[in-house]
Design a protein that fits this description.
Layout lengths: L2 H13 L3 H8 L3 H9 L6 H10 L4 H6 L5 H16 L8 H25 L9 H25 L4 H6 L1 H16 L1 H7 L5 H25 L2 H13 L3 H28 L7 H22 L1
Amino acid sequence: MNNFQTLLYQLRKEKGFTQAELGEKLGVTDKAVSRWETGESFPETAQLIPLADIFDITVDELLRGVKATEENVKNQELKLYLESIKGNHFPFSKKEKFFMALSVTLILIGSLISFLLYFMEDKIYFLTPFLALSSITMFPFIIIGCNKMMRDGKISDDIIKKNFLNVLIIATGVFFIILALIPISIMIFTEFKLVLIIIAGILLIIGIFLDIFGGIGFNEDALSKISHYSNVSMPKKYKILSIIWSTLVMLAIALYVVIGLITGVWHPTWIIFIIALFIGIIISTIMTTGDYL
């Protein structure tokens, strides 16, 4: 039996109709219904609508021979959505470009100050300017980035506004996580290690809690669309950039650990992270220049 015949048989059994009872409702004989179910014949066009009404399904489902489940409906909606966002890429607004450029400038200023402080006699706070300014830039980076992905994912302005608080909470969480690195960087040069570890731990816990809290409160539909957009329709250069940044971070961490273990000297090698940041910013600037013009 093909799909139509199978579905018709299943629906009739679910309703508890005999072939004669179903035929009576449609004004045909039980033999006609039997021929439909065995594939010997097919209902006339005029009989399809009342047949679908009897079983509370659509004519399309009847003809396809597949009763739409909630999962099937969602899959169909997802398919249509993915088709609609292919190649979708809205440019940054002037305000977003300004804040992104300002953020990059702050990171570069922080890096330069930290680089100069490193060559001073007292190196205790040499990483603080870089980490402090970097933590502040998380707000525009995350807020603008999330909003752009939601726009590209065809999420309504109303939902974007409703999710703003959650995006802000997530950005604040990342802010605290980066701040936690400041007492850790100071710890290398001071005797108050326990106090600094406690401060770093508190900042880290606050950051993780805020990120989890913000993520839980995020609109499920918006989160799903952002995920699908990033997997399906995000421009290739941004996917490449994501891989580049992940690789730079892993390489920086690996080099820092290996050099530290081999030489036993840890604090000078912090410069590796600043170098990795500079490389990442230069590559990102070259690849995305057109988006900011």
